[in-house]
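User: I'm preparing a small set of examples for a lab meeting where we compare how different chains pack in three dimensions. I only have the primary sequence for this one, and I'd like the structure in token form so I can line it up with the others. Please keep the answer compact; I'll paste it straight into my notes.
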Amino acid sequence: MLANLKQMAELVDVFSRYGNKKTFKKGDFIVHPGDHPSGVFYIIRGLVKAYDITKYNEENLLIIRKKDEIFPLIWALTGQERKISYQALAPTVTLDISREQFEKEIISHSGAIAPLLDMTIEMYKLHSERILNLEYRTVRERIISFLLTMATRFGVHTPRGILIEAPLRHQDIASSINATRETTSREISLLVKKGIITKEKSFFVIRDIKVMRALLE
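Assistant: Understood. Below is the structure token output for the 217-residue chain.
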């Protein structure tokens, strides 16, 4: 991480001063499909899924944004944005400001640039890992690689194993690893039967992360 606590506080202060506080229920759209973003959002708490729609009319998961992150990040920094939808995956609270205000404040608060750079690097890392994931030959390996990445980003250690605190549908995983939902569901069921992972509603638990990693070696 490049940013320190003071620099992160400087970024948060920009949104606290000028932002409009909004609350979203799970499933609410923050940016509707096809709409232009109404502003730059900072997540106070919650989870936000970013996805687009493929030519086959299927959702393609791009990234899940979490607490203390900003979206749409690329649009905020460059003004360029594809038609991406943003939807709350959990009860979510945000602060949003206009992109014009965001640009003005970031220029005058240079310390806030470091946290933005951290978020950009993290996004680049996630997309790079997604590309590398496709080098695995089997769907099972790609699922394991995907879950390990999610565990790094959202994992919490519990007595049951590492709980991935982000709800993941089989379709979300399938779109991320370039597989069909049916094949993905079948391979997940096999991993569950083997006791490598468990499912608690929409949440995955990795029972033994060393075993998971060994399966990719």
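A couple of notes for your slides: Helices lie at 5-18, 73-78, 99-108, 113-133, 139-154, 170-177, 181-193, 209-214. The radius of gyration is 18 Å.

User: Perfect, thanks.
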